[in-house]
Automatic annotation (TrEMBL):
Keywords: Cytoplasm, Exonuclease, Hydrolase, Nuclease, RNA-binding. Belongs to the RNR ribonuclease family. RNase R subfamily. HAMAP family: RNase_R. Residues 736-747, 769-782 have a biased composition (Basic residues). Its EC number is 3.1.13.1. The keyword Cytoplasm applies. This is Ribonuclease R. The gene is rnr. One of its GO terms (biological process) is mRNA catabolic process. It comes from the Bacteria. The lineage of its organism: Bacteria, Pseudomonadati, Pseudomonadota, Alphaproteobacteria, Hyphomicrobiales. It comes from Bradyrhizobium vignae. InterPro entries: CSD2, NA-bd_OB-fold, RNase_II/R, RNase_II/R_CS, RNase_II/RNase_R, RNase_R, RNR_Ribonuclease, S1_domain. One of its GO terms (molecular function) is RNA binding. The keyword Secreted does not apply. 3'-5' exoribonuclease that releases 5'-nucleoside monophosphates and is involved in maturation of structured RNAs.
Amino acid sequence: MKRKNDHGFPDRNAIVAFIKANPGKVGTREIAREFGLKNADRAELRRMLRELADDGIIKKKRHKVSEPDALPPILLADITGRDSDGELIASPAEWDEVESGEPPKILIEMPRRPKPGTAAGVGDRALLRVERTDETEGPAYRGRIIKVIDKAKSRILGVFRSLPEGGGRLVPVDKKFADRELNIAKTDTQGAQDGDLVSVDIVRSRGFGLASGRVKEKLGSVKSEKAISLIAIYAHDIPLQFSSAAMRDAEAAEPANLKGREDWRDVPLVTIDPPDAKDHDDAVHAQADDDPNNKGGFIVNVAIADVSFYVRPGTALDRDALDRGNSVYFPDRVVPMLPERISNNLCSLVPGEPRGALAVRMVIGPDGRKRSHSFHRILMRSAAKLHYAQAQAAIEGRPDDTTGPLLDPILKPLYAAYACVKRARDERDPLNLDLPERKILLKSDGTVDRVVIPERLDAHKLIEEFMILANVAAAEMLEKKSLPLIYRVHDEPTLEKVHALAEFLDTLDVPFAKSGALRPTMFNRVLAQLEGHDYYPLVSEVVLRAQAQAEYSAENYGHFGLNLRRYAHFTSPIRRYADLVVHRALVRALGLGEGALPDSETPESLGEVAAHISLTERRAMKAERETVDRLIAHHLADRIGASFQGRVSGVTRAGLFVKLSETGADGLIPIRSLGTEYFNYDESRHALVGTRSGTMYQLGDVVDVRLVEAAPIAGALRFELLSSQSEGGPRERRPFRPQRKSSKARPGRSPEQKRKPEKQKSGKERNAKGKNKGRGKKGKAW
């Protein structure tokens, strides 16, 4: 019996129940048919669906409605207004409306006596603990404020441009406000000079003409490209100075000694890092296992700087480190999580110097699988500091004065152990999205010299795989000891994104099995079949966009990309707070001495820490990306009118985003400049299609463009199209034919992959039912 109101119209509960019972298949037509509604009822139905979507109870996308994506239990939200009762209403701060529709609303529950730091108002940004409501009236979520992160701002960051008659204009650094300059009177400049980065208070805003502002603070000049990173640092409120108390703690710290430690100074551990690395927080050593029961196996030792010995819970150093969450890396500088005396001195595993470390000793079987592990608090002495290309050259028969004596006793066993563990990695078959990363090289004056793509070497993969093994060992040990920890988690793609990917691949006649339980192997199989084909860059990009974003969590729902059930970050405590928490937990679990995780830490409190450092990680990634955009825009500013080749990196209703092959710079070709005909946005194809000619511009297309405009402060570029693959009419596609792979080239299937497929649930849903069945991938993106 379908529930209807007094007017014969279905009530909200009945409509919501129908939508939940038919995921991904319901639109206005299906609801009308189900409840016997006539054409005259359609307007009322659309109004009700709009209300449900506004409250976040359902999600509307194009002509379909569905349940909204579940919000995490702790998230960052913007307080956007009040309801009719005066209660605060918030929305998630990070929400993709293109992918997920309107963001859900969250009703803020305020206690009678708010804790310090939790009093909030409209326009503030806050960290919330949220839960789903069962109500079909009002917001779909309710939340409590953990901490107000940012108060509503009437202050703008920008570059001061002086005017001949005195005073000046503010050019905002945010791309979204690049065309909204502020007028600054002569009396309000506070002595700012042309090119200074300043923060400005808005003193008057008008409906017409320029708003007015007053300089509040001068932050430095951006006339030199060497200072471009300052913009991102201040725009994202990244702490630049340590507190005086933290600096005093750092200066008072003393080198570690043998007290409470095992003596590993004779173990020839070596560091292998980029050539420009300033700190060295991990060292490795391997040797063949002489145990007759493990013939062909190895002993792998991974030693990690003992930061927990110096940064104790609750100290000024700890508070500053948590506030930062992680180090931030710009082309011209590093904003470290810890003062240099700690990160670059006492905790850096430099050659020949005794250093405290937390080490894991892992026994690897001949099949490459880890058989056992043990953790040790040690005093070590690095035997050498190597960089990746140097180690690789030695193995390939080109040793130098440093690597020559190390080749047989140290490097060859390391590479032999890596070849062994690689067998297990290939069988595990993690997500194989090895996309190139560009690196900006600067001249001595801070300007861009060139952009390079560093070669991907076995030396890189060796270190990555040993670090992954150590991270897994840390998570397993802490779970065994029943201690709370912060996991590194990566959820599997949503069912909606998988269906969207399948629809896209279908337009290319590329087969993709979307039924059964999701495995990284499904995506790897598609990529392997397309290797060497025109479609490969395009499909790689779309597969990447289908993936969830990795984060930190006190709850384990696995790491999909790495195809691992449990995973934690243990190997970089100098630059990541999550690793420091894991070190403290290991010290407590194994009774290794001082610097242990306090007994007061619970999964709930660590959940709040995990949410915070997930935010600081995303803040760092955004700041780093924007700085690169600004540096390259500065670099290209004097090349207006020049032609470049690139690839379409994004397709929207506004136009095409193009990534240049030479520099990796991103810019926009506005849709209005594509021609005289009208272009439709085809979401399933990731393309713009001409209505008259059928000309199609698609994600991944190779294009020739002319640079029309560069806005260095905003990091924005505008192009016009010169030619593309699709010029001259509808695109002709080379038919797809799957490549045959030999049985040797195909990785084996793990027992986990051979299981009978189960109905797909997200990692978070599995975790809620007490099933930790996650998985995972390597690299920075995960």
